[in-house]
Amino acid sequence: MHDFTTLTTLAVTVFMGFFAMMNPIANTAVFVGMTASKSPQKTRAIAFKALFCAFCIVAAFSLLGKGIFSLFGITLPALRLAGGILVFLVGYHMLQGNQSKIHTSQQATKVAIQNEEDEGDIAISPLALPILAGPGTLATAMNYSASGDITHIFITIGAFAILCGITFVCFLTGPKLVEKIGEGGISIITRLMGLILTVIGMQMLIQGVHDAIQLYVPVGS
């Protein structure tokens, strides 16, 4: 049985981890730049398809995480160590006021803005991958669901679904939101999210080292 307080704490932790990684406010600015020449109907279609694809990708990794580990012989400590490093690097770049190249594809974004692609192409790449469901987001999802506990898996998927809903609203109100917050506000939010991510990454690293010691170091040695 899971304690309600423990589950609530886990849900908040997972949500904040996803929120910091996806950074809906900063991604809204990217989305507005990519869809500036689109009609409201196409903009809505792009936002929905991008977020739906991102949700499906994260849900798949959350559900299949344990199977992927078994297939490739990956241990949970290895995921937490690698994921911790990855999340820490993303957070470090954001803390400097930059979007990490690990998490987003600036070149892909430039190509999408320069070329008038249809909404399906833009929604899937670069929006869904790698901007919304990048390596950092997938590592975060697998870290919280990799134990195989069905409760943890559902909490992870549910938290990401809520975040997708929030991001969808941000995308639809993008121009007004970006105008009100301004570049300075977006920069401050990005740095705050970066700080949260560096702490989450370090916690994943600490947990990974702890788990690795318990797994590989004989008791009493």
TrEMBL record:
Residues crossing the lipid bilayer are 12-34, 46-65, 71-92, 153-174, 186-206
Record's keyword annotation contains DNA-binding: no
Membrane topology listed for this record: Multi-pass membrane protein
One protein family per Pfam: MarC
Q: Which UniProt keywords apply?
A: Cell membrane, Membrane, Transmembrane, Transmembrane helix
Q: InterPro entries attached here? A: Multi_antbiot-R_MarC
Q: Where in the cell is it found?
A: Cell membrane
The similarity comment for this entry is: Belongs to the UPF0056 (MarC) family.
Entry protein name: UPF0056 membrane protein
Q: Which organism is it from?
A: Vibrio agarivorans
